[in-house]
Give the backbone structure.
Amino acid sequence: MPNDKIVIIGGGPAGLEATKGIADLGGNVVLVERRDRLGGTPDSSSYAALTHHFMDAQEVLGKMIVAITGQPSVDIRLSSKIVSSQGGAGNFRLTLESPRGQETVEAGAIIVCTGFDHFDPGGETQMYGYYEFDDVITLTDAEAMLKAKNFARPSNGQVPERVCFIQCVGSRDRRIGNEYCSKVCCGIASKQAIEIRQLLPNAKVFIFYIDMRMYGYWEQEIYWPAQEKYHVQYIRGIVSEILKKGDKLLIRGEDTTMGRPMEVTMDIVILSVGMVPSEGTKEVAKLLDIPQDKYGFLKTAEGGLDTVSTPVEGIFVAGAAAGPRDLDDSISMAGAAAMKALAIVKRKSQREMRG
Amino acid sequence: MIPTEALKKSKREFKRDPASAPTEDMHDKVLEIEAKGEWIVHRVPEPYIEFDTKYGRKKKLPLQHTWHHKSCGQCGHIPGYSTSIFWLHRRLGMEYNDPTDQTSCTAWNYYASATSNSAAQACVAMRNFAAAYESGYFPQIHCATSYGHYKEVREEMVHHPELRAQVREIMAKMGKRLVMPEEIVHYSEWIYAVRHEIAKHKVLDLSQITATVHPACHYYKLVQEDAIYDPDVYGGQRTAVVTAVAQALGATVADYSTWFDCCGFGFRHILVQRDFSRSFAVQRKIEVMREEANPDVTLTHDTGCVTTLDKSQFAPNAHIDPDKRKAAIPVMSEAQFAALAMGAHPYRICQLHWHAADYRPLLEKMGIDWQEAWKEFEDDIERLRKDPKAFLTWEDSDKGRAAHASHGGL
């Protein structure tokens, strides 16, 4: 008989949503989180406002955490990680390492919610100078400053007059092997551009892009107001290098609309870094023998519209551990994964489910 | 939560991870082919030092027992460049072989689309590698264009078995085996490896000298993963050779906004679009350096770059109103600069009289009495003129200042 527990690895938005879903449906969850607190990447990377309606990230996460805390059917293990695994669907035997030491946890199904890491800009063409120039920062660095309501030049603490974003850093790039689009960076950059304009009405903000990928309602809720209300300037073209000129940064690239090279100075450059599989995702893939795609993300089962089943029976994935996913995807996948994991423990095999 | 203060103070350090390198590791490929019995891999001799390259892989740099693959361009019109490289080896007691039967790499020929076919081109490279192997010394390449080109040849040879078969047959006719070096090494990597030794032997104070560095495209853009990157230099974000040497010698290295630009030599631009090269060198590089960094000297590490940046400076001198003309920036290799710092003769060894842009203010600032040195050199010439069979020897170059005949003029 399948064990009635479901182990969820990763306490970020996907893990929190999956936990709540399973608890609401009467299931039992062991939520394993390696950090000493829940919240995942939006917490560890100090997200300020979420792209969704500019909701405060801490508020949203706070609500999700409260919803599962103190539930008798939810066992939250912080500062913990899985170190080995045996068995299969219905009867996994996992070794959990925590401050209490090592113990065996039995589970009927597993949901992996280990998320992503932000691309390290040093791995790019390396002409953006992230490790050379203090005023070249990433989306997460900018997010931290916006959260503190203090957006200033890291080099001298001064208020910037000109700020630009460079899109697709570490994404859509055959040279470094990350050919995919990371899906969220256009929305995040536009959101941050609006936030900077709100904070610093005299600052000029530019976004250098290849394509602006503003899916669904982001088009009229973010992209149009960014331009029409907040006067963010979108310039199509690739930036090839960033150097210093005096105490400013010199951006050199191509303006493809005008069909000519461009050289402009900026005070701060924000690199819109994409998603790569997190260290946790890579570790768990090896531990649980989950096949990975060529980028290192977890594979989902082929041949159907199943977005959450991995090729390993009884193991599901939700969120960016499966590849670039936005919050909508992560929350939706969490619901689907919760449903399927619960089905396993209610004695249905995956074969029966597919009919 | 990351407070802004912490963000300002944090020292970001980029850690390279060879496991995530986007290109294949040539070392593995070269050794695989040896394992199949197709060629001999000429191993890097001890003593060697290992350094990180662009994607975090290690590169072995031999310090001694090197076979010097010279540069036609250097020997032809920047002879002080080659002489300085040899002088540095001699002064540091690093044993080397200067072959008299080396051929040109023919890369410039190839870039001008005048090469015959890929087998002929590869044979030139493989012939030189075989000659080095036979001598027992490991190839050290003087010219970055040769270096980049030989890396391209290596890639072709590794990926095309039919090319290897053709080349093997041609080598056999010359009585030579197919040999591929374990590493393809540029002399500037050797200077980088021994820069602290050079600094120990320094006799001049260079603390007042500001240098700009021009990195050779043929060194770090052609087959980019082989170039040396150092976390202490430019945060590991730009190639470290030349800059690290100037810094080790105590000079200030100033940045400028066209650092990544080609010097203008291109591949064949200097042959077929010469005015473009000249304009590019002057307007994109020299004038920008002057305006933004105001250096005393520009250092670089390729034959083509020294040629283009130096010799192109005659053009603005010819047509710009002298009152509006910006002062020339002397250009030399870091080998010549290091040699000067160690007390090498500016004319016998560094042969700066071959350079176009005026280097004399630089020498004065470095504390070198170029007038005295020139008189010594004129004495040498006088002596050589009297005996057609005589030539300057290494012993001559290290001679102390002798009494000189009075010539008048320079």
In short: Chain B has 20 helices and twelve strands.
